[in-house]
Amino acid sequence: MDEKYPGKAQPVLVQKASGELQPFDSKKLELSLRNAGAKQATIQMILDDIQSWVYNGVTTKKIYARAFKMLRGERTAAALRYKLKQAIMEMGPTGYPFEQFIGQIFQKQGYEIQVGVVVEGYSVTHEMDVIATKNGLQLLLECKYSLDQGRHVSVQVPLYVRARVDDIVRKRKEHPLYKDLRFEGGVVTNTRFSADSIQYGRSAGLHLLAWDYPRGKGLKDLIEKYKVYPLTVLTTLTRKEKNYLMEHLVVSCSQLKQQPEWLQELDLNPKKSRAVQRELDEICS
Q: Which domains occur in the chain, in start order?
């Protein structure tokens, strides 16, 4: 019981990926399940189980794993979507599949994209992870991929990106090909930004995109809005098979669904091939 408030139970403290302790919030769990598309009966079943099981010091990762196991038992696309954040972490260890994935998200928004492009600056050459162009605006984007969910992008990154973009823009403004374009630099991450990096990014006019930033328009929101789900969300392919596809720049479920010939490259037996197709139909519908 809480000594300050007799008769009131103390909240259960759970551990975030950063190591920080915070009170368990069933509303957040409920919202994540609802956003994944789970049915109300399934949501209530999982909430009842987690609330009766959760204990002080348990990690949010363990809570997620328990909820996913129950959701997966329902065999619905909701389970695949609920696995989304972990699936992004499984795109590593290099950041190149993530860059391709970000390119596809911007392409879905109507941008013409280039990935991994070496461009001339006024002083030196630079490699830009993603260049996205639409309606007279060109975004020059640096992708910061991390396998650590608790990691925050520090202020040094937007500082560095601002300097690189300024050097590129100074050169491009001299070229007739770019005379009608406006330019913006930006940073995209699968984790989060530190408070300083957000403050500097805003003041420096940078396009910032993180897992849940900007609020309601973060990476997670864009993935769900445009249905560009990472290939790693699939459960019917092995890690080795997923790595093979990503090495050949097949990084999303929609891409694999549109290019089924890549399944033939994996030499799957007919039963497994049909299982993969069913899973692709579920997640892309």
A: 13-82 (no CATH), 96-226 (3.40.1350.10), 229-284 (1.10.150)
